[in-house]
């Protein structure tokens, strides 16, 4: 969905940080890498892992989770099963802004029985480029490379309407906290969910609170 | 020091990954943000932290550690004291390459008694821009902002030759492992230090081994 259309069709009160992020994406859209972000997780040995991934859009108009994709054979799938905590660092060169988004990850694989998440996995597969889809038919990522088998990399790319390959996983970041740093104006904002009260804990989703903090 | 000059004046056998990184920096130098990298660490609650920092050069011609700067009052200083493990993700848009560099961090503050590290801290302070140096005289980063005191942000910038402010820390990443991913050619290389043998453990620094792995 185009960003302008996405902003226009959202009916509910969208969190301020989501609106800001959509605006930053629009302002930086001439840069091919404005959708590249760095995703940090924690390995089982308590060391951090950090890699560049491509933002594939918000989960839906009503859900502010960020989506990415990964290969079921990649090391991060096992790491996330042991510790789902993640933080994304997202730098926009054109507007000189950084967003940090933290929360927990869900990996949606072929075996996932959640209907909405499975539908999102199929939609993102459909929207991938052909070379993007082809990678999921490649040999096991990260293993020693056997250069004597060039044919392994020339497999035909699955079409958008082909069945989703089992190696294709959707990665969903459920965002709990967002920090925006604007280098041009030296402003910094923290967005956190309002604290639940004893009475309101089971009520509607909590509103986000904005706090200006020192840069 | 200019990158070309840096490459030319190094006498010893430079690790392949350092030479590649210097070449990538030169090929991407038209982009102001080619020296911006994302540094991931682990917080005491076992959640990852991830933020954009500026690469300030290698520690020396003979030491392949990467350097950055931070404020002694920033949250990451306490986090690193509890867990020094870190991974840098570094994406170069022009050449479409990613480096991941992992290892342990050392924070060099005003109290550090290591002569070489203290000299490096002073050198990096000297090489900072005036606005870069000024930030270390600002109010405590990350605390709630008191907008009623705009004067706090207009403090004069310390000159290159002024004494180093106590809040100024050098951050040193001692690199143990490097991975390079080239998106244009779908190549991926892993660089690790050679395993120490029982006899050679106390000998000269171990050589780096390159291994091609599946992208």
Automatic annotation (TrEMBL), chains A, B:
<dbReference type="InterPro" id="IPR024624">
    <property type="entry name" value="Pyridox_Oxase_Alr4036_FMN-bd"/>
</dbReference>
<feature type="domain" description="Pyridoxamine 5'-phosphate oxidase Alr4036 family FMN-binding">
    <location>
        <begin position="15"/>
        <end position="108"/>
    </location>
</feature>
<dbReference type="Pfam" id="PF12766">
    <property type="entry name" value="Pyridox_oxase_2"/>
</dbReference>
<dbReference type="InterPro" id="IPR012349">
    <property type="entry name" value="Split_barrel_FMN-bd"/>
</dbReference>
<protein>
    <recommendedName>
        <fullName>Pyridoxamine 5'-phosphate oxidase Alr4036 family FMN-binding domain-containing protein</fullName>
    </recommendedName>
</protein>
<dbReference type="GO" id="GO:0010181">
    <property type="term" value="F:FMN binding"/>
</dbReference>
């Amino acid at each position: 969905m185009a960003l302008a259309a996405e902003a226009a069709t959202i009916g509910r009160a969208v969190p301020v940080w989501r609106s800001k992020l959509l605006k930053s994406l629009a302002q930086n859209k001439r840069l091919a890498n404005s959708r590249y972000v760095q995703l940090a997780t924690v390995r089982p040995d308590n060391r951090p892992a950090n890699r560049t991934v491509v933002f594939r859009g918000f989960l839906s108009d009503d859900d502010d989770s960020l989506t990415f994709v990964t290969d079921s054979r990649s090391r991060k799938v096992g790491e996330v099963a042991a510790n789902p905590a993640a933080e994304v660092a997202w730098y926009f060169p054109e507007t000189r802004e950084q967003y940090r988004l933290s929360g927990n990850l869900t990996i949606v694989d072929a075996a996932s029985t959640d209907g909405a998440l499975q539908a999102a996995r199929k939609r993102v597969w459909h929207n991938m480029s052909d070379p993007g889809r082809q990678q999921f038919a490649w040999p096991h990522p990260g293993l020693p490379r056997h250069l004597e088998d060039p044919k392994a990399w020339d497999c035909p790319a699955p079409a958008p309407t082909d069945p989703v390959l089992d190696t294709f996983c959707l990665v969903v970041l459920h965002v709990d906290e967002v920090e925006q740093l604007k280098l041009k104006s030296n402003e910094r904002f923290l967005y956190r969910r309002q604290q639940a009260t004893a009475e309101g804990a089971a009520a509607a989703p909590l509103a986000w609170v904005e706090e200006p903090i020192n840069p």
